UniProtKB/TrEMBL annotation:
Lineage: Bacteria, Bacillati, Chloroflexota, Ktedonobacteria, Ktedonobacterales
Protein name listed in UniProt: Uncharacterized protein
Top-rank lineage group of the source organism: Bacteria
Length: 114
């Protein structure tokens, strides 16, 4: 994979106050959607506080390169706005192939926890 781009948008929060969804688009340098990413390819950090976040679920959104990322915050997380750093890494190497460097792309997204 020769470089890629990530964009993200926080969706309205439904249900549990400690869970929220982020829509993510991952494209290569030619604008084509990158498919077959797993939860292991997504790293999320709250850069506005020490709140721990985990990827609860990753689903394809039905189009190449589009994903719904369900995130879970610690139940003790304070309500309010949080700024997240979202890092997407390239898929891992297939065994037996010449290793290629792992690439990554990143973006920021703001979420509101109720």
């Amino acid at each position: 994979m020769a470089g890629f781009n990530v964009t993200a948008l926080a969706l309205d929060q439904n249900g549990s106050p400690s869970r929220f969804t982020v829509a993510v688009s991952v494209t290569d340098s030619d604008g084509l959607g990158i498919q077959n990413l797993s939860e292991n390819n997504f790293i999320v950090r709250n850069i506005a506080s020490d709140t721990d976040l985990t990827v609860a679920e990753l689903r394809s959104a039905g189009l190449p390169g589009f994903y719904r990322l369900s995130l879970r915050a610690d139940p003790m997380t304070k309500a309010g706005r949080h700024v997240l750093a979202l890092v997407v890494t390239s898929p891992h190497q297939v065994m037996g192939r010449v290793p290629e460097p792992i690439e990554e792309a990143h973006t920021l997204v703001q979420v509101s926890l109720a």
